[in-house]
Write a structure and sequence with these properties.
Blueprint: H1 7-12, H2 15-23, E1 43-48, E2 53-59, E3 66-72, H3 74-100, H4 105-109, E4 123-128, H5 140-145, E5 151-154, H6 156-165, H7 169-188, H8 200-212, H9 227-232, H10 246-250, E6 257-259, E7 269-271, E8 274-276, E9 281-285, E10 293-298, E11 303-308
Antiparallel strand pairs: 1-4, 2-3, 4-5, 6-9, 7-8, 10-11
Helix pairs in contact: 7-8
């Protein structure tokens, strides 16, 4: 059974943004139309978009230089994406600076280079269930085109939680659908919902989904807030507290970084193609692979102790 999450909790976890990504064609778009939320449906499958072994590549459109980062396993995949995304960020900074140096608007429009979207490190894909309602929003064209293709989204918390569930695909789908339904119920709680309301049909679709599966919605586990899922994943997520990524650094969640005692601000640090946030840094970042860490768990005092062997 799930604890009842608040709307704020779900928004903070990115559930609302995830739903928007699923209802729009481009997960990177900054102009996602909220009206498309009326077509959110339960999902029938969910999976990752990256193979266990492979490569992350990108070609610089200006210099023609090609970058390829091979990986084998989840840890190396994330590192490969960080490195390539660092190259992309450098390129995007160059594009932005070049554009700013062009004062003439017409000439700026002719500039042959555009910013590039970075790789989504936490990207997953889903396939929707077939809608049961014969509504105009589910047109024949939409059923033939949008409904049958995989939809992608990028959400770190959802990605990590699904990994903790392992290979139990049916359970993962059920928990994901519970999460979305809880979000819809929280959004519409206390509101007057009519057939013209954005979430009128989504509410019916999810309600019917659980009924036809003979599942009591109130007894399901919310993927992000289910008590059972949270308790099972506490120990396995401890290592996440000490791993540093470029994303963590940019967000200010910096671990394994030594600081300049004189508190002199330094320029942005570039290392292995990754850009780290400006700050009062000594100028280097301690390498933080999981095997380099010692972790101690004090069960009595409910404390976590960790130390980097090379710090």
């Amino acid at each position: 059974m799930s604890a009842k999450p608040t709307l704020k909790m779900m928004r903070d976890a990115g559930v609302g943004d995830t739903v928007l990504q699923l209802c729009n064609g481009d997960i990177h778009s900054q102009n996602q139309d909220p009206k498309t939320l009326t077509r959110i449906l339960p999902i029938k499958t969910i999976k990752g978009v990256y193979p266990y072994s492979g490569s992350i590549d990108w070609k610089n459109g200006h210099t023609g230089e090609e970058f390829v980062e091979k990986y084998n396993g989840e840890k190396e995949r994330r590192l490969a994406i960080d490195i390539i995304n660092g190259k992309i960020e450098q390129y995007n900074n160059w594009v932005e600076n070049e554009m700013m140096n062009i004062s003439n608007v017409d000439e700026r429009l002719k500039f042959p280079y555009n910013k590039v979207q970075s790789y989504g490190k936490w990207e997953l894909s889903i396939v929707f269930e077939m809608p049961i309602n014969e509504s105009d929003i589910f047109s024949d064209d939409w059923r033939e085109e949008d409904l049958v293709i995989e939809k992608s989204f990028n959400n770190k918390e959802i990605y990590k939680r699904l990994r903790k569930l392992g290979e139990n695909d049916d359970y993962s789908v059920e928990c994901f659908n519970k999460m979305i339904y809880d979000y819809i119920l929280a959004l519409t709680d206390g509101k007057t919902i009519t057939e013209k309301s954005t979430f009128y049909y989504p509410n019916l679709e999810f309600e019917d989904y659980f009924m036809r599966k003979s599942i009591d919605h109130s007894e399901c586990d919310n993927l992000l807030f289910g008590e059972k899922i949270q308790n099972e994943s506490i120990i396995s997520t401890l290592i996440d507290l000490v791993g540093i990524t470029a994303e963590d650094a940019r967000a200010g969640r910096i671990k394994g970084v030594t600081f300049n005692k004189k508190n002199k601000p330094m320029d942005d640090i570039w290392k292995d193609g990754r850009r780290y946030k400006k700050g009062f840094k000594e100028g280097f970042i301690v390498k933080t692979l999981p095997e380099d860490w010692w972790i101690g768990i004090d069960i009595v005092n409910e404390l976590l102790h960790f130390k980097h062997s090379k710090a």
